[in-house]
Amino acid sequence: MNKPVTIKDIARKFRCSPSTVSRALNNHPSINEDTRRNLQEYAQKVGYQRNQVSLNLLNTKTASIGVIVPTINNYYESAIIEGIDGVLHPLGYTLNICVTNEQYLLESEYVTKLLSNRVEGIFLSVSQETYDSGHYEHLENVGKRNLPLIFIDRDYEGFSAGSVTIDDYHGAFAAVEHLVNTGRRRIAHLKGPNGMAVTEQRFRGYTECLAKYGLPVEEELIINTNFKVESALDPTAQLLELEQRPDAIFGVNDQVAIGAMKVIREKGRRVPEDIAVVGFDNSPISPYISPSLTSVARPGRQIGEEAARIFLNYTNTAKKDVPVHLVLPSELIIRDSSGGR
Amino acid sequence: MNKPVTIKDIARKFRCSPSTVSRALNNHPSINEDTRRNLQEYAQKVGYQRNQVSLNLLNTKTASIGVIVPTINNYYESAIIEGIDGVLHPLGYTLNICVTNEQYLLESEYVTKLLSNRVEGIFLSVSQETYDSGHYEHLENVGKRNLPLIFIDRDYEGFSAGSVTIDDYHGAFAAVEHLVNTGRRRIAHLKGPNGMAVTEQRFRGYTECLAKYGLPVEEELIINTNFKVESALDPTAQLLELEQRPDAIFGVNDQVAIGAMKVIREKGRRVPEDIAVVGFDNSPISPYISPSLTSVARPGRQIGEEAARIFLNYTNTAKKDVPVHLVLPSELIIRDSSGGR
DNA sequence: ATGGGTATTGCAAACGTTTGAAATTTTTTG
DNA sequence: CAAAAAATTTCAAACGTTTGCAATACCCAT
C-alpha cells in the first residue's frame, strides 16, 4: 500500500508550483497548452487521484450524508436506501450507511461519528431501543448544528425535524376491514414489539376497525412477536389451541404472516378456508408463495425518494425552520391467503 | 445549518492558543487542571465535535473502507455486509457502501470515488456488466496504489487481489446429486444469466453431476433466468409443456425456485410428488414456505467476516504480495420440496 | 533577589488542495 | 528597441487539527 501521488509530487517532478499542477489538472484556461497536456498525461500515468479529503476540509463540505437504519437485511429498509441513493447519487452525494441493529448505543455512536465526519444531513430510522428508552440526547448536537435531520419510517414527535412515514394506521385498518368484509369475525393479531411506532399504529388500526364493526377486542387474540418468522410460530400454535379458534390472523408483517401460515397448515387447518391470513409489507415473494399472501404494501423506495427531496429542500432553501412531515399512503394488496377478491 | 464550532473558535473565546484547547480536550497531562475543565465544559456546552476530516488529512488515513456490491436488496448480499461490519466496526472502521445495480459505469465511478476519498481497502463484488465485459481498467489505479482489494462472491482471476467465494460448483453438484439419489432422472435447470461466475459454476455442478450418473445433458431442460422470481415463470411453463416433462427442477437461486413452484402448482402438478424443486441461497423464508424449500446454503455472513480478516491481515502484515483466495463450502439443506430426507 | 526547576502555554509546521492577487515571462505594438 | 499588453506562473493563505520544541510563568530554596 504505497502512499498516493500528490500534486506536490507532480510539481516537484516538473519543477513547477503546485498551483500550476492544480490548474492544469482542472483545465484552468490560464495554463499553457503544452504544460497542461504534459501534466495531465503524467498524472494519468502515475495514477494521480485528487485527494477528496483535503478538498472537503478546504471547502468545509463533504457532499456526504448519513443514513442510520436498524438493519439493511430486509426488503423494505433496503428499498428506502435505494430510494435515497436514487435521488442523491446523481447530485454527487455519497451515502454513509450505518446499521444500528436496533441498539441505542450504536445509534448514538453513529450520530457522533457522522457529525464528526461532517455529513451534510442525516436520515434516521430510529432503533427499537431508542424508541423504547425515549432517549434522544444523542440528537442534541444535531439540533445545535441545525443539521438537516429527517426521520424515516419511525417518526419522533418531540424533535424538530422532517419525517417521512407511511400510514400504518390506515393500512392496518384496511387489512382488518377487508377481513371483516369477507365474513371473518374472530380476527387475531400477531403484534410487533410493544412501544414501537409501527407496532402501535398498526395495532390501533386493528382495534379501531374492530370497534367500527362492533367486534370485541379480545386479549387472547393478541400476541406479541419480534417481527421474525420464528417468533410467530408459538403464538400461532397458541391461537389454534384456543377454545374459540380465530378465523383470521392479521400479522404485523409478512414474515410473521408466513410463519403463521406454516403453523396453520401443520396443524391441519387450511388457509384461507379455515383461517384467513393477512400480512404487512408486500414483500417481493408474497405473490409467489402458496397461497399467495394478502398484504399491505409500503412504498419503501418512494419513502427514500421523498426523504431525499425534503433534504434537498432544506439545503436549497434554508427554510429549515418549517419541518416537513410527510405521510405516504399504504395500500392493501388482496391475494389468496385472505380468501380473496 | 450553522457552521460547526472549531477549536479556533474556542481558543479565541478563551484567549488561548488552539494547541491548548486541543490538548485540553484530549486530556493531555501538561494542561492545567482548571483550564482543562473549563475548556471541556465549554466545548460540551457549545456542542463541539472534533472535525474528523481535518484529522484524516493530517494523518493521511481515514479508517474507512469501501464496499461495492451489485445490490443490497437481498438477503445474501446484506448478510455479507453485516459480516464485514461485524469484524471491522469494533476496530473503528467505517463502511462506505456503494450499490452498482449491476452496472459497470457505476462500479467504475464508485472505485474512483473511493480512491479519491482515500479508503484503506476495497471489498468488491463485481457487477454483472463488468463480468460480462471483462473490463477491469477501473481497477488499475487500485493496483497502482497497491491498495488492499478483496473480491467477494465473484472472483476475478486475472487480478492480483484477495478473494472470498463460496463453492458454487460443489453446492450445485450436491443439489443435483440429491435429486438423482431420490430417483429423479429428468432434471431441468433454471440457469442464471450466461457468463456470470455463479451461473457458470452452478451450471458446471449440474452438468458434471449428470455426467457422473450417466444422465444426458439436454438442451431443452436448460433455460436462462435473471435471478428474479418473474423470470422463472415462463421458463417453467415451457418445461411443463415438454413432450417429456422433467421430474425435477434445480433453480439457480431460491427466487427462481419459488417462481417455478408457483407455476407447477398452477398447472396442476404437485411438488415434490410430480416435480421436485431445489433452490440455492437458503434464504430465511425457505423453511417456511409450502412445501418448505430444499436449498443450498451460502454462508453470507461468514464470507463477509473472512473477507474482513483477509483485509486486516493485509494491513497488519504488509504481506500484500500473497493474495489469499478463500473458498467457503456451501451446504445442501434438504426440506420437503425435493421429496425429502 | 536570584537561580534552578517545574508547570503550563504558545509557535510553527504539517496534511493536500484551491484561488485571488502578485510576479514573472512572453508577445505585441508603436 | 522600449513600453505596453497579454500570457503564464508563483506566492501565500485558507480549511481544522495535532505535536515537537521553544517560550513563558510560577514556585521554592538559597
Structural features, described:
2 copies of one chain form a homodimer. Helix content of chain A is 43%, strand content 16%. The first copy, chain A, starts with 6 loop residues before the first helix and ends in an 8-residue tail after the last strand. Chain A has 341 residues and is an alpha/beta fold. In chain A, helix 2 crosses helix 3 (33-45), helix 5 runs parallel beside helix 13 and helix 9 runs parallel beside helix 10 (197-212). The mean pLDDT of chain A is 93. The interface between A and B is large, with 62 and 62 residues. The first copy, chain A, binds a DNA duplex (30 and 30 nucleotides) through residues 6-8, 16-20, 22-23, 26, 28, 30-32, 35, 50-51, 53-60.
Provide mean pLDDT of chain A, rounded: 93
- Alpha-beta classification of chain A: alpha/beta
Total helical elements of chain A: 13
H/E element order of chain A: HHHHEHEHEHHEEHEHEHEHEEHEE
Counting copies of identical and different chains, the oligomeric state is homodimer
Estimated radius of gyration of chain A: 26 Å
Number of strands of chain A: 12
In which order are the strands of the major sheet of chain A placed? 2-1-3-4-5-11
Query: Any idea what the shape of chain A is?
Result: elongated
Low-confidence segments of chain A: none
Helix content class of chain A: 40-55%
- Percent of residues in β-strands of chain A: 15-25%
Main sheet record of chain A: 6 strands, parallel
- The rounded distance between the terminal residues' Cα atoms of chain A is 62 Å
* Pair with the biggest interface: A-B, 62 and 62 residues
